[in-house]
Design a protein that fits this description.
The protein is an alpha/beta fold and 539 residues long. It has 20 helices and eight strands. Strands 1, 4, 5, 6, 7 and 8 form a six-stranded mixed β-sheet that branches.
């Protein structure tokens, strides 16, 4: 009879085990540990050392950083899954030194130091350059949509908000009227163990929904007013420039128009600031009111949500003040574009303008054959080893405005300009073509949508409506060299997205809000580059 190898799950170790013996030599865990040991984490350590020294000792920031980075490398991003992995997964146990930080500690570390962790992008990129993985011979820009940590069914248009508010207000008034009418039977209605002055649970739910709708409507109107103020300020600046260049009889009229435009801009800026301040004050009063009566866990959860809403409103107020200040640049060169809600001539939100209750910064984007609540994630990829040399994310669907800031970021990160640059038709504009030419890179940008089996240079625009730059780019793409270079675009730009979304299963952001999403996307791209560096050194 065949005998089996001895097996006893309850067998104790006779000697202390060596954790490094549990994994094969050259495992990714050892590479991540060595990598993190050489990174500059002074920004994270500085925040930790600035805290009160009393209390429990924190986990080593290098261990926590390695835990987060390795988790993103293997597609384990949830703090609860990371905690569970330190107990159940040998690789995670080796990495953590058999320590088991709970999910709250992991989540808090990631949120507190997310910006510093995303700042490691350039450090890892430098290591890729030192390993000769970045050639800058040909880079390609492309984008992909990632789902937000929110449902598209939690978004509502401005028109529907107004209608729902009116309906809820009518329901609340009707319920209050009905409560007054049956005041004599309040013991039966509220229960003998109650004081008799509590609001019915149904009325509370309606009031909380009404407050959420009012806050979302206020936020939409404040955002619309800010956009209107920016547009008015731009018109005033143009009018002032025109007046400065006018002479003779036209000068007086130009100066009058400039004064009128400046007055309109000042009024719209004042309105935008008032709306943003009013929203911040409303959320502050709501938080204080909830804090005074927070006795149950459900009420304390409402307080936490109210504080988050208040913090968001205060951040938006401060941002509005900065963006509308006289010294602020209307659009910084390195800033990624953001979605602007549609407004009417008076600066009010159009009925179709939407806002999501869960993640207000996210937008409904078209993805393939459907729609999703998410963000537009951009990456500039180097052809040699598919290293991501620049990464960015925003909530604007069209790609055309991403080209300039993304290419600038790639040059800044690498310290040099790529020789060849390719992008699909979504990035084409005369302005982008001129920018690439001024930067000194040989650009190949498709001028029309590519059909299956048809070259991307095919342009449905008639010759009479085609700009000179567009015609030049189209002719350039039809040359043998142009066809060969552009044919490599998909093979360069798209594989990293497939590796991130399909291989590692990262299709949704964990965090909410524009700033945190941008940092998390950088973290995802860092892990992509770490994997490329690991595999290159393993060969």
């Amino acid at each position: 009879m065949k005998s089996y190898r001895p097996w006893d799950p309850d067998q104790s170790f006779l000697f202390p085990p060596a954790p490094r013996d549990w994994l094969p030599e050259g495992h990714l865990v050892f590479f991540v540990l060595d990598l993190v040991a050489g990174l500059d984490l002074s920004e994270i350590e500085g925040v930790i050392h600035a805290k009160d020294a009393r209390g429990n000792r924190p986990h080593d920031p290098r261990m926590m950083s390695a835990l987060v980075l390795y988790g993103y490398c293997v597609g384990v991003t949830s703090s609860r899954r990371l905690e569970r992995a330190t107990h159940e997964d040998v690789a995670f146990r080796v990495l953590s030194g058999d320590q088991h930080p709970d999910h709250t500690a992991i989540s808090t570390f990631r949120k507190q130091h997310l910006h510093a962790l995303s700042g490691l992008f350039v450090q890892v990129l430098r290591l890729c350059q030192q390993a000769k993985l970045v050639k800058l011979g040909h880079v390609a820009l492309d984008g992909t949509k990632l789902r937000a940590n929110a449902s598209k069914h939690k978004a509502m248009s401005h028109a529907r908000m107004m209608k729902s508010e009116q309906e809820l207000m009518a329901e609340v008034e009707a319920m209050l009227q009905r409560a007054e009418e049956i005041d004599a039977a309040e013991d039966e209605l509220y229960g003998k163990d109650k004081r008799g002055d509590e609001l019915p649970e149904e009325l509370r739910r309606r009031e909380s929904r009404l407050k959420k709708l009012a806050e979302a409507r206020q936020a939409l109107e404040a955002e619309a007013a800010k956009r209107h103020a920016k547009e008015k300020r731009e018109l005033a600046e143009k009018a002032q420039k025109k007046a400065a260049g006018a002479k003779g009889k036209a000068q007086a009229k130009a100066e009058e128009r400039a004064d009128d435009a400046l007055f309109a801009a000042e009024c719209s800026i004042e309105t935008a600031l008032e709306l943003a301040a009013e929203r911040a004050e409303t959320t502050r009063r709501e938080t204080q009111a909830l804090e005074q009566r927070a006795d149950t866990p459900a009420e304390r959860k409402l307080v936490t949500q109210a504080r988050q809403t208040q913090e968001r409103a205060e951040r938006d107020l401060e941002r509005t003040r900065i963006e509308l200040s006289s010294s602020a640049d209307s659009h910084a060169q390195s800033e990624l574009p953001e979605h602007c809600i549609v407004i009417d001539a008076e600066g009010n939100p159009m009925p179709r303008a939407q806002r999501n209750f869960t993640d207000p910064d996210s937008r409904i984007l078209k993805d393939g054959g459907g729609y999703m609540q998410g963000y537009n994630c951009q990456a500039v990829v180097d052809e040699a080893h598919q290293i991501i040399i620049a990464a960015g994310a925003s909530n604007q669907a069209p790609d055309v405005e991403y080209l300039k800031p993304m290419l600038e970021a790639a040059v800044t990160n690498c310290g040099a300009t790529p020789a060849v640059f390719t992008a699909d038709a979504g990035y084409w504009s005369d302005e982008n073509a001129r920018f690439c030419e001024g930067l000194g890179t040989d650009a190949y940008i498709a001028t029309g949508r590519q059909k299956h089996g048809v070259h991307a240079s095919g342009d449905p625009v008639s010759r009479g409506h085609r700009s000179e730059l567009r015609s030049q780019m189209r002719d350039k793409l039809q040359t043998e060299d142009g066809k060969a270079r552009y044919a490599r675009r998909k093979a360069v730009a798209e594989p990293p997205f497939g590796q991130i979304k399909e291989v590692r299963g990262i299709r949704r952001f964990l965090l909410r809000g524009m700033e945190q999403v941008r940092d998390e996307w950088s973290l995802i791209c860092i892990s992509h580059n770490i994997l490329k560096l690991f595999r290159a050194q393993a060969t």
